[in-house]
Amino acid sequence: MNIKTILICALFFPMVWDVITTALGIVGVLGTNIIAWGIAVVVAITIASVNLCTKGILKLARSGTNDLTLFLPVILVLCILFDFTTSLNGNARYLILSNVAAGKDMGIMEVLQKAETGEQFFYIILVTIITTASPAIVGWLTDIDWLD
């Protein structure tokens, strides 16, 4: 087993957690009804899929064959930013408030301010960075040519 395989296997779990926390973050804003959950799951899987295709999107953008290829990196950046903020929201609500629905009227900064220690705040930020990056890293490591 080589290092690539080990990293892909190790980052699979943060990638799954990324999808879960993205959905939790969306539900934390939209509410916990069935429509919100449906939207959250679809968007979370879509965002993770785009993030997983980072290498292919950047390769396609470098080819510059048409306007769409130039627009794809913008979509990628928006997806990564959305993923980070919703995952941060999901992690904070789940780990600090212990309930995704709690604090629905609170913004993410208000939730983060409820962290009991600086370490808890730091760990939530660190976990969010790792989970947000994990789909892109897995996609990069797989060496799949997404354009074929």
Brief account:
With 148 residues, this protein is mainly α. It is 79% helix and 0% strand.
Write up what this structure looks like.
Keywords: Membrane, Transmembrane, Transmembrane helix. The chain crosses the membrane at residues 35-58, 70-88, 121-142. The chain has helices at 3-30, 34-52, 54-63, 67-95, 108-113, 118-142. The model has no long low-confidence stretch (mean pLDDT 87). It is built from six helices and no strands. It is an all-alpha fold. Helix 3 runs antiparallel to helix 4. It is globular and about 45 Å long. It starts with a helix and ends in a 6-residue tail after the last helix. It has one domain (3-140). Helices cover 79% and strands 0% of the residues.
Overall pLDDT level:
87
The shape is globular
The domain tally reads 1
How much strand content do the residues show? under 5%
Range of helix content: over 70%
Question: What class would the helix/strand composition place it in?
Answer: mainly alpha
Number of strands: 0
Order of H and E elements: HHHHHH
CA distance, first residue to last residue = 27 Å
Low-confidence runs of at least 5 consecutive residues? none
